[in-house]
Specification:
The complex is a heterodimer of chains A (266) and B (235). Chain A has 266 residues and is α/β, with parallel strands linked by helices. Helices cover 41% and strands 16% of the residues of chain A. Chain A has one domain: Rossmann fold. Chain A is built from 13 helices and eight strands. Chain A has an eight-stranded mixed sheet with strand order 3-4-2-5-1-6-7-8, with helices on both faces. The longest helix of chain A has 16 residues. Chain B has 235 residues and is an alpha/beta fold. Chain B has two domains: 111 residues; 111 residues, Pectate Lyase C-like (3 Solenoid), CATH 2.160.20. Helix content of chain B is 18%, strand content 31%. Chain B contains five helices and 16 strands. In chain B, helix 1 packs parallel to helix 2. The chains are: A alpha/beta (266), B alpha/beta (235). Chains A and B meet through helix 7 of A and loops of B.
Chain lengths: 266, 235
């Protein structure tokens, strides 16, 4: 038995892999699960900053692989929530510092002590992706509603399928219902039509995501924003709960224009 | 396919041999009267192929009036006892007019498949899953994809290529230079297609065939589109 190992990947950069990893990790930990978020983006680590744990990083997982320290020494415990840990990447090394077999071995070492191992994957389809995916059982593919991001997601899904990862589920990030309504953005149906995998959640565009990343405090600690709610729901679905998809139109209808319409009776 | 024309003037009526008989291609630049005159002048012997069951009258984009239809019937088809299998046109008004008059407007499917000896004698690779971005199939013969060809995926075939789902990626049929091949798409949505040594990238949502099931062949150095409908031939 042991942990479910899930790689969070996308192909294209900048679509929200690290943000998704941090927020889902916090939400799973808040649900009482023992969770470790592993930053596999060697040389470009960010997860420590997004989780607000940058100042507490001493060792990284390359140190574990090279036996410079014990695994427990490299794990950074998040004091704000029980059972949440970060295993950081090395900032001064390159993707070549680790092999897929070593990553798989690292995941095997983590499995007995956790319920979930979340692997924050680097962008691209080269060594960094292959390393991260090697140790995973399942995958979350993050995309934004843009044609290039969807095509890259399609590429990654093909590679994950050929590696035997299952299930592979989709997170649509930075979704704007108004733009979809105006035919300016791909709709959920458009994206699923291309990617043909199961949707696990839609995260709306939300300014609080940027503020939270700059503060180093994942949104799901507070769960007050639409994006936080979306990430919490994704975590619940990972746990097998049947949570209906949020209707993002409802957020729009709560806006100023809606209030004015109500006020003037039209 | 055997081209039976002996002259190369653009305004000539072309007779093309097919497995079912003859496809009669009418030019755009003749008046109705001159067209009729030229059609009448073609001797009956020209239609006598050893194999085949009839004619397809192909108006391409030429408007086809009621008067022209009536004259073709009364002055050529009936007097010469010709069997017309279909009246095809890409002009929507003409197509509607023909359909309204009870004429068959879909050419026999056999034209596009049986009449391609190169393609039919090749082995066929059947791919039973969709191809995602970055995935690639290359085969010396024909390729049949039972699924979608996503944007960023590719099929390169020596023969013909049939994508039963959505064709969004790149297809190169007849990659060794042969042009006697076809491409079938369950839904036509590509950015670029290649047949033989020809390449075409002028596709978009404004074209008539976009997101429709089509058969594409190369004729007179241009891509030629037809509706792809599965029909049971009774003749």
């Amino acid at each position: 038995m042991g942990a479910r190992v899930i790689v969070i990947t996308s192909g294209k950069g900048g679509v929200g892999k690290t943000t998704s990893t941090a927020n889902i990790a916090v939400a799973l930990a808040k649900a009482g699960k023992r969770v470790v978020a592993v930053d596999t983006d060697i040389g470009l680590r960010n997860l420590d900053m997004v989780m607000g744990l940058e100042s507490r990083v001493v060792y990284n997982f390359i140190d574990v692989i090279e036996k410079n320290c014990k695994l427990t020494q490299a794990l950074v415990r998040d004091k704000r929530v029980e059972n949440l840990y970060l295993l950081p990447a090395a900032q001064t090394r390159t993707k070549d510092a680790v092999s897929p077999a070593q990553m798989a071995e690292l995941c095997s070492q983590l499995r007995p002590d956790f319920d979930f191992v979340l692997l924050d994957c680097p962008a691209g389809i080269e060594g960094g992706f292959k390393n991260a995916a090697a140790g995973a059982d399942e995958a979350l593919v993050v995309t934004t509603p843009e044609v290039p991001a969807v095509r890259d997601a399609d590429r990654i899904i093909g590679m994950l399928e050929s590696m035997g990862k299952s299930p592979i589920r989709l997170v649509i990030n930075r979704f704007r219902a108004i733009m979809v309504q105006n035919n300016e953005m791909l709709s959920q149906e458009d994206i699923l039509d291309v990617l043909s995998i199961k949707l696990i959640g839609i995260v709306p565009e939300d300014d609080s995501v940027i503020k939270a990343a700059n503060r180093g405090e994942p949104l799901t600690f507070a769960q007050e924003s639409p994006a936080a709610q979306a990430y919490a729901n994704i975590a619940a679905r990972i746990l097998g709960e049947n949570v209906p998809l949020l209707q993002w139109d409802s957020y729009r209808s709560k806006g100023l224009f809606s209030s004015l319409k109500k006020m003037f009776g039209f | 396919m055997i081209a039976l024309r002996t002259t190369v003037e653009a305004s000539d009526i072309q007779l093309k041999g097919t497995s079912f008989g003859i496809r009669v291609v009418f030019p755009n630049d003749l008046s109705d009267d001159l067209l009729l005159e030229k059609f009448e002048a073609i001797p009956e012997q020209a239609y006598a192929l050893p194999m085949g069951t009839g004619l397809v009258l192909d108006f391409r984009s030429r408007p086809c009036s009621r008067r022209l239809i009536g004259n073709i019937l009364s002055k050529v088809i009936w007097p010469k006892g010709l069997n017309v299998l279909a009246w095809t046109t890409s002009d929507e008004e003409s197509a509607a007019r023909l359909a309204q008059g009870g004429f068959k407007t879909q050419a026999p499917a056999a034209e596009y498949f049986a009449a391609k000896p190169n393609a039919n004698t090749l082995d066929t690779l059947i791919v039973d899953h969709s191809l995602r971005s970055g995935q690639h199939e290359e085969y010396s013969g024909n390729v049949v994809l039972i699924g979608h060809l996503n944007n960023g995926a590719e099929i390169f075939a020596g023969g013909s290529v049939s994508v039963l789902g959505k064709l969004k990626g790149l297809v190169h049929a007849g990659r060794n230079g042969t042009e006697r091949v076809y491409i079938v798409a369950g839904s036509f949505e590509p950015q670029q297609l290649r047949i033989g040594d020809k390449l075409c990238d002028q596709f978009g949502e404004d074209m008539k065939w976009w997101k429709k099931p089509v058969i594409i062949t190369l004729e007179d150095d241009g891509l030629f589109f037809r509706d792809w409908k599965l029909e049971t031939e009774t003749t």
